[in-house]
Amino acid sequence: MSAYSQIADHFGRLSALSNAIGILQWDSDAMMPKGAAASRADSMALLRVMAHEMAVDPRIGDWLGAAEGEGDLGAWERANLREIRRSWTIQTALPADLVAATSRAISACEMAWRSARENADFPALLPLMQEVLRLQREAGVAKGEKLGLSVYDALLNDYEPGGSAVQIDALFDDLAAFLPGFTQEALAAQARRPEPAAPQGPFAVEAQRQLGLKVMAALGYDFDRGRLDISAHPFCGGADNDVRITTRYDEADFSKALMGVIHETGHALYEQGRPAAYMNQPVGSARGMSVHESQSLIMEMQACRSRAFFDFAAPLMAEAFGGQGAGEQGLGWEAQSLWRRATRVEPGFIRVDADEVTYPSHVILRYRLEKAMIAGDLPLKELPLAWNAGMRDLLGIVPPNDRLGCLQDIHWPSGGWGYFPTYTLGAMTAAQLFDAACRAEPDVLPGIGRGDFTPLVFWLRTHVHSQGSLYSTDELLTRATGRPLDAGVFKAHLARRYLDQA
Known about the structure:
Strand order of the largest sheet: 1-3-2
Low-confidence stretches: 325-329
Structural class: mainly alpha
Strand content: under 5%
């Protein structure tokens, strides 16, 4: 076997192990009984150590050196070696005992977060989350020394390869200066329009589920390679060719679960559309989390909060909840009214329920807080006070308790430090990709109005999904849209949708 064949075979087996970890993690988050938490934590720690040992196998360095000198490799194979070297450099920075300790700390903290969130009890979570933070810092130091990066950038690099706090600071400081004034303009424009009628609940969970399944099918989700379930925090997970999504239901507001389903379906479409020939290789992986978030937000925000979408979806919604007809029964089920409600701007406490205008402020807050906690400038015990102060400054509201504040997300308890900025980087990327898709394929919006997402999904499959990690994030976006990330496209999109509505 050639050196390239040997290294590709090794990473194919590592991918199979990672798939098993992914399914166990999904089960932990969606279906596992509480009594299994301790034994599951032990199993996950062992599997993650095994995966880490495979990822730092000393033969990899030799294989890389030999394979990189082979002259018959194509562009995909050379990109695969580049991604393997990047991964190997990161993984060899982490000792196995740190990987095991991190896995156990995360498993314990995730389980404690569920009850702490339910009871709005931050002190109960504090010691476990403190341990996760300590280990994340330790990992960031180790990776940073190997990569020549700051501690925060080393953690960010796991989710956004090539990203840096310096770049994000510039983008987010610009948005933080823009958003408060724009939000007030959008609220003023909204106040000049009649209040849209609200469909009256309750909305049965099973009816919500069936509606979600219909919309997933329209978007192009492959049910032979995935499923829809319930979890405390919506997510997309699983394994290659087994891409599972979850949502959570509120009988008082069906739109929360539906938009959650659409968001996670966008993630799943990306995973289901990755290049089949390289599915089990690093080059076949998604190109970082800002691109991944762009795929969920293209569906949730760009496509499914467009006016066209409600021409298709309004009859489905009315049918699902018995809202057909005129008079009181039909009130609020008109496409125009549903669209107005879906694009309503209203500052709120919960990030995943936030409207498109205020959502970036939620992310900017989390980014600033996690950067300060990693640096040691913000003690973890002071997080609730700092969170509330940031909400007041950015959104003008203060959560009444920590369940609606710093306990609402699972990311920090699950070790996702450095993840949050990718949400708003993804929103900007989504606006740019959707703009390019509509320019290239004039039937994108008319198709959405008919419930035909094929033109949009085909364009995304061609320019994003099928490209895996062949290119860097900047290269991928430039090839797809003709330019690198441009915040002006996102701002122009907001202005069209929220200031220019008839």
